Amino acid sequence: MSQNCCAPILAGSKRKAVAPQTNRCVTCGQKGKKVDIITLKAVLDVSLLALCEGPYLFCPTAACSVVYFAADGLQSYTKEQIRVGVYQKEPGDESVLVCYCFYHSPATIRAELLATGRSTMVEEIEGGVKSGQCACELRNPQGSCCLGNVRAVAKRVMNELGAPATSTLIKRGSTSPGGQ
Fold first, then answer.
1. Looking at residues 87-96, what average pLDDT do you find?
2. Better pLDDT: 156 or 164
3. At what angle do helices 106-116 and 147-161 cross, to 10 degrees?
4. Residue 36: other Cβ atoms inside 10 A
5. Contact 38, 137 (CB under 8 A)
6. Are 68 and 58 in contact (CB under 8 A)?
7. 170, 159 Cβ separation under 8 angstroms
8. Rg over CA atoms, the chain
9. What percent of the chain shows pLDDT beyond 70?
């Protein structure tokens, strides 16, 4: 549902505010999280000709097909218009990435936990961030760091496996649960 809100303004005319900024998803009404336009440019799978300068927001609601919406409600983009699966929209899909920079999904987190009884992915991601290897604003559809999502997935998987959640925070080389 993309409208051309960026049509050229005729000389001498002024653009009128068509709709107030609501910051609520046009479909589900959930409050959105501001996302930089660079994220949309990177992950949208549609022509960018009609993309306005924003501001845009990310809708985190799993049951809603809208991923991005303009704050004024005039534009929105659905998960079918995104180049990658969106973890927040497909939380039950084990193959959808939860970390878009280092390619971790719930399935890879589960595999590591089953193989080793712990997850070193948080440490790996933190190391990548420190060394400048992450590009969350470009790769992650939510436009921000994935660490909170990775921690939540690791905790959920540990609960499903019946293991203590503290095991997910063990760092490489550590011998005590939760050692950081």
1. 94
2. 156
3. 50
4. 15
5. yes
6. yes
7. no
8. 19
9. 79
**What is the pLDDT, as a whole number, of residue 100?**
96
pLDDT of residue 36: 95
Quote the CA–CA distance of 146 and 153 in Å, as a whole number. 11
The rounded mean pLDDT for the chain is 82
What is the pLDDT at residue 166? 53
**In the chain, where the domains are located:** 33-81, 87-169
Three-state SS across the chain? Answer: CCCCCCCCCCCCCCCCCCCCCCCECCCCCCECEEECHHHHHHHECCCHHHCCCCCEEECCCCCCCEEEEECCCCCEEEHHHECCCCHHHCCCCCCCCCECCCCECHHHHHHHHHHHCCCCHHHHHHHHHHCCCCCHHHHCCCCCCCHHHHHHHHHHHHHHHCCCHHHHHCCCCCCCCCCC
Query: Position 33: which residue type?
Result: K
pTM of the model: 0.78
- CB-CB contact of 113 with 104 (8 Å): no
Confidence grade of residue 22 (pLDDT, cut at 50, 70, 90): confident
Residue bearing tokens 């999502």: 149
